[in-house]
Structures are given as C-alpha cells and as structure tokens.
Amino acid sequence: MSVLVLLEQRGALNPCALEAATAASAIAKSAGLELNAVYIGQSLAGQEGELAGFGLKKVYAYENTRLGHYSNDGYVPIVRELAQELGATVIIGSASAQGKELCASVAGRLGVELVQDAIACRWDKGLHATKPVYAGKVISDVVINDSPAMLSLRPNVTVIERVFGATPEIVRRDMPEVSLRTVIQKAAEATTGTVELTEAKIVISAGRGVGGPENLPVVEALANAMGAAFGASRAVVDAGWIHHSHQVGQTGKVVSPDIYVACGISGAIQHQAGMRTSRIIVAINKDPQANIFKICDYGIVGDLFEICPLLTEAVLQAKG
Ligand SMILES: Cc1cc2nc3c(=O)[nH]c(=O)nc-3n(C[C@H](O)[C@H](O)[C@H](O)COP(=O)(O)OP(=O)(O)OC[C@H]3O[C@@H](n4cnc5c(N)ncnc54)[C@H](O)[C@@H]3O)c2cc1C
Question: Within a domain: residue 292?
Fold first, then answer.
C-alpha cells in the first residue's frame, strides 16, 4: 500500500513534478501511506535536493540517454511495472500534454480508471478529485474507487510546499529491455516562444478586440514586458491572425497561471473553460457588460489600445 508520484522532467525537473509531489505528499499523510516517486529521464544528478521535504521515502530513478525525451513505449512499461512492484494504491501524475498521455497509457495498461486534469485532490476514506466539467460550468467531486486510484493534476493549481525535512533515498535502476519504436533526437522550441503557455505563471491573451493581426504587437509588448506567455481567443485563431498553439479555451489549451490578462476578449464560456482557474484574472474590455467582467478579479473598462501601452510602460518602469 503506497502512493506513487510520477516526476515529469524536461532536462530539469518540471515545476509540475513538484506540484504533483506536494499533492501526493498530502494524500500519503492523510491516508497513512508510504510515498515513493519515479523519475524517468537522462539524469537526476544534481537535482536530488529539490525532492527533499515532500516525505518521499524512495525515488526510483531510471536514467538513460534514450529516456531523455518522453516516449510512450519507453516510459509506460516502467511506470506500470513499478506501480505493480510497489503495490501502489494511488498514482499521481501531471496533466501536462506529456503527463496526460503517460497517465492515460498507464491506466489503460493497468486496466484502471483515471481522472485527468484534476484541479485538487484529497483523501477521505478514498481518493477524491476535484475536476471542472461541462466547459468549467460545473466543478465535480469525484471519488475514485479503483485500485490503484489514478489522477493527473493540472499544472499551476498547487502551491509547492515542503513540510518534511528528509531527503529521499535515490534508487538507481537500469532501463528495462524495451525496443523503442521511436527515439526523439531533439525537441524544438515551442512556437509560442520561450514561455510554454500551459506552464506559464503569467499569460496575456488577445481577443477579437485587437481588430486585426497588425495590432497584436500592442498586446505582445505587454506580454514581453511581463515575461508572460502569449495566448489568444479562438476568434483570433479562426481569423488566422495567430497560430492555434496560442489558443486558450475548450478547444485550445487549458491554463492556470498566477495572473491571466484578457485583452479585448468577451469571456465566452468556451474561453472561460481554458482560463477560469487562473489565480488572478484581469480583464481589459471597452464593453462594461462583457461576460469577462463577471469572472475577473480586476476589470479595466477601456480601450486596449490605450490601456496596454500604459501598462507596458508602467511594468518596464517598475523593472527599471
Ligand atoms: C464548440 C466551441 C468551442 C469553442 N472553443 C473556444 C476556445 O477554445 N477558445 C475560445 O476563446 N473560444 C472558443 N469558442 C468560441 C467562443 O464561443 C467565442 O466565440 C470566442 O471566445 C470569442 O472570442 P473573443 O472574445 O476574442 O471575440 P468577441 O466575442 O468578438 O469579443 C471581442 C471583445 O473585444 C471587446 N473590444 C473590442 N474592441 C476593443 C478595444 N479596442 N478595447 C477593448 N476591448 C475591445 C468587445 O467589447 C468584445 O467584448 C468555441 C465555440 C464553440 C461553439
């Protein structure tokens, strides 16, 4: 009986790995279960210290250059076999693009149910997951009765907390004999720029209110000043003003940053589905009746072509 947390890496440990470890740590503590983790990647060397404080007993590290990049046929057998070996009763991963695929494949191989993209979880005589459904209109509380109970946690919704002192024992394991059908040689930079949208702490998005692709730089300048990822509504994507990889919403990406700024976005329910779990929502819209004002923390009624440059200047000044 134990909890197993899947530590995601992309060269270095991903922040969502430490968020999953935080959530798993709380579950293990409430349930009185042992907590272990699995790391699959090129090398954990130099990062062991980051795994202190979560109450992890052991971290099983499968290190190999061929495991540096995620591959389904490389990672899934490792997690499946380790979960069985440890008799894991709870498995927690991340709801990143990679994590969702890994969790779904492991759940399929183990023949168990999985709750994807939970925004919170807790232990109360079983594993409970909080999950938005119907484009975020309903927040459901799901009890997972299967064993192992599996869930993936949305990135950025959990504050990383280290409450225990001890550093886990690192158990280094050889890569199992598997024939990899695909070996990724190199991962190219995402088209959204340097900050990945789903993991960004700040997201600034543009809507149809920008009026045309030639005006996107007004919002982009604010994003650059704030070190933010650049998002967009579907209207902007459908009009061909920007690539689909920037789309936030039900049929785009789901983001949960600390700050989300919607510029010229009306706040349709399908857009909200991708951003309403953001910690602080700021809306800039010239229509005081716009739906986005019903869910925002700070609303600026005004023309984005006046507001965005003022904010950009203020941010740049504050940064010196
Ligand atoms: C099945 C389905 C899936 C969908 N999936 C998504 C999705 O994933 N993501 C998504 O975003 N949408 C999605 N949509 C579309 C969604 O319903 C809306 O049509 C879309 O979000 C509208 O985009 P918008 O807010 O940019 O445009 P609009 O609704 O046209 O709003 C533009 C806003 O800009 C304001 N504005 C105009 N000029 C200015 C100015 N100068 N300064 C400040 N404000 C200004 C206006 O007041 C208005 O509120 C989906 C729809 C369906 C049916």
Answer: yes
Do residues 190 and 244 lie in contact, with contact meaning Cβ atoms separated by under 8 Å?
no
Query: What average pLDDT score do residues 228-244 get?
Result: 96
Q: Is 272 in the pocket of ligand 1 (CB under 6 A)?
A: no
> Ligand 1 within 6 A of 42 CB?
no
- How confident is the prediction for the chain on average, in pLDDT? 94
Helix (H) or strand (E) holding 4: strand 2-7
Evaluate: CB of 208 within 6 angstroms of ligand 1. yes
Shared domain check, 223 and 134: no
| 88 Cα–ligand 1 center, Å | 44
The CATH number for 203's domain is: 3.40.50.1220
Cα–ligand 1 centroid distance for 232 (angstroms): 9
The domain that contains 71 carries what CATH number? 3.40.50.620
Residue of 238, 245, 263, 266 to mutate, ligand 1, most atoms within 8 A of C-beta: 266
Domain contains 114: yes
Pick from 156, 152, 115, 131: nearest CA to 14: 156
The residue-averaged pLDDT of 84-103 equals 96
- Residue 176, SS3? coil
CA atoms within 13 A on the CB side of 260: 32
The answer on 201 and 300 residing in a single domain is yes
Q: Are residues 29 and 141 in the same domain?
A: yes
The boundaries of the domain holding residue 130 are 2-173
Query: How many structural domains does the chain have?
Result: 2
Whether 251 and 109 share a structural domain: no
- Asked if the structure places residue 166 within a domain, the reply is yes
Ligand 1 mutation pick, 204, 250, 254, 308, max ligand atoms within 8 A of CB: 250
The answer to whether residue 192 scores a pLDDT higher than 80 is: no
Helix, strand, coil % in the chain, rounded to nearest 5: 30, 30, 40
